[in-house]
Amino acid sequence: MKTDIEIAQAAELLPIRSVAKHIGIAPDELEVYGKYKAKLSEEYIDKIKRNPQGKLILVTAINPTPAGEGKTTTTVGLGQAFDKLGKKAVITLREPSLGPCFGIKGGAAGGGYAQVVPMEDLNLHFTGDFHAITSANNLLAALLDNHIQQGNLLRIDPRQIVWKRCLDMNDRALRNIVIGMGGKANGMVREDHFVITVASEIMAILCLASDFRDLKERLSRIIVAYDYSGNPVTAKDLQAVGAMAALLKDAMKPNLIQTLEHTPALVHGGPFANIAHGCNSVMATKAALHMADYVITEAGFGADLGAEKFFDIKCRMADLKPDAVVLVATIRALKYNGGVAKEDLSRKDMGALQAGIVNLEKHIDNIHLYGVPIVVTLNAFSSDTPEEIAYVQRFCEDRDCEFAISEVWEKGGEGGICLAQKVLDTLESKESLFEPLYEDSLSLTEKIHAVACQIYGAGGVTYTAAAKRQLEKLERDGFGKFPVCIAKTQYSLSDDPKLLGRPVGFEMHVKEAYVSAGAGFVVVLTGDVMTMPGLPKTPAAYKIDVDDDGKIIGLF
Asked: What are 254-296's pLDDT values in tens digits?
């Protein structure tokens, strides 16, 4: 059996100009990065704003196993299936982070015969967007420390610096560090921290900005520290906005690549969903809606994280109204939620399936809260049995959900035609009545309670003393109207990764809260979630290499 990277490297790619021509983009409306990658020009994005908008389809999932269960693969395959049906469709995805590529998951471009390509480029440096974000983030950090070193006219309190440096790599040793060692010329000695780039506020800002003017306005609002009187100090105060914007100028433009079957894909931005808002850029999604009749996008991890943040943060800020949701499940993940160990997921176990399907039920209930029609799809594995599949199908149909098997990993677009037809039928027969979960006017604790109790199934929320003080200060400082971005484990509806299935009545534990004033949301940290992941005992990096012919191997 071929690996994902072997399938991708054997594919015959079209020149990116040919892919663009397929959806009406002229050659001079692209900024080309080699033969197979390009960015959409500002002129093209401005021009298409006059076009009517297509239908927006969100692909999300149940809580996954630690291996992941194919949400991106389903998204890509569904786009290819729409193309096979003669529909004008564009896929919009996030860019993969280097951290997981070299850590646990390996590459993140789909899988099997439902991938976006060039796979190696996408998973590694791509068009340099993440490097630009990292540089802009760290420029702000350097300007902050330099201001203190050069006299500190803003009276920044070094004990109240909240801006962290970032790196797009899993490096636990950088979570808590000391800088300024070695004498006065090297700056003030203080504790500092790193987050992974995909959890940084700059990443969130780039993905939520509607245009370049909005980007600069958001950058200017970033809070980097507080002064000795407790007043916020911003990037604007440090005169950092112009230089940061210059670094981000090209990164703001959506990237165009293709699937294995040459379906156009806009891949842009990459915030994590367990510790950030988990969606591709607003600019890419809105551009795609003006480029095609159908836009298929994905939001990270389970619907409790990705879909909730897509609905309550991205759609709220960008005035997007999703028309349908595809909810991805696998027999394997359902059995995992029923208590089966990861190494035993391929064995038939109807008892575990029946115990774990309550996880799917909760995600269905959650999406119904938002008023969006649902199609449930099983991402097929060879170990699935007819009895298991029939049980899941009956379960979904009893809950007013369309159901389809997805075989896109094995068959590409052809394996997604049944799913695509179910989605088209749903779009024609069911109206989306989308509304966010909560109103802006609620307090931050009321918003946290709404998500925890209505989406996760918690019985209540507990706060550390520090988190209570932080939330009270954020309310006093005028950030109470912001949506909340809750960071928690992806493996459970709760904040405890070992609490599988559909837990009820548990307490969710909030340990910290801070504002991302430029992004426009309040981050709420729960459980043991960390904003700088670490590498596992056997990282995926061990298997990655370049052969004597210059071909990358082992990426996935």
From this structure: 999 999 999 999 999 999 888 889 999 999 999 999 999 999 9
Q: Which of 37, 55, 71, 316 is catalytic?
A: 71
CA 381 – CA 403 distance, rounded (Å)? 16
Q: At what angle do helices 241-248 and 212-220 cross, to 10 degrees?
A: 140
How many CB atoms are closer than 10 A to CB 154?
18
Contacts of 26 (CB under 8 A, 6+ apart): 20
Q: Which residues pair with 31 in a beta bridge?
A: 39
Q: 94 catalytic, yes or no?
A: yes
What's the pLDDT at 555?
81
What the block records as the tokens of 94 is 């996030």
Distance in angstroms (rounded) separating the CA atoms of residues 325 and 233: 41
339-353 residue pLDDT tens: 998 888 889 999 999
- State the pTM of this model: 0.95
To the query of whether residue 489 is one of the catalytic residues in this protein, the response is: no
Return d(Cα 417, Cα 79) in angstroms, integer.
Answer: 10
Annotated active-site residue 105? The verdict is yes
Annotation marks residue 301 as catalytic: yes
**Residue 321 is among the residues annotated as catalytic for this protein:** no
Contact 506, 458 (CB under 8 A): yes
| Cα–Cα distance, 327 to 342 (Å, whole number) | 21
What's the Cα-to-Cα distance from 212 to each of 26, 139, 197, 271, rounded to whole Å?
A: 23, 19, 20, 19
Token digits of residue 224: 């980097």
Q: Give the residue from 252, 254, 253, 264 showing the smallest Cα distance to 295.
A: 264
Identified catalytic residue from 60, 73, 234, 297? 73
**Active-site hit among 94, 221, 488, 502:** 94
Query: Distance of CA 232 to CAs 190, 253, 256, Å?
Result: 19, 31, 39
Q: Which of the following is catalytic: 105, 321, 468, 481? A: 105
CB 463 within 8 A of CB 473: no
Distance CA 108, CA 92 (A): 14
Of all residues in the chain, the percent with pLDDT exceeding 90 is 87
Angle at 210 between CA 34 and CA 200, to 5 degrees: 75
Look-up of token digits 């520290």: 225
Concerning whether 395 is annotated as a catalytic residue, the answer is no
**Active-site residue flag, 159:** no
Contact 36, 55 (CB under 8 A): no
- Written as one letter, the residue type at 262 is H
Query: Among the options 130, 194, 272, 409, which is catalytic?
Result: 409
Q: What is the DSSP letter of 520?
A: T
Tokens for 500? Answer: 């599988």
Omega within 30 of 0 (cis) for the link into 254? no
Q: Would you call 73 a catalytic residue per the annotation?
A: yes
pLDDT of 314 strictly over 90: yes
Question: Residues with Cβ < 8 Å from 365, sequence gap 6 or more?
Answer: none
**Cis before 118? omega within 30:** yes
Q: What's at 107, amino acid-wise? A: G
Structure tokens at 151: 């006299």
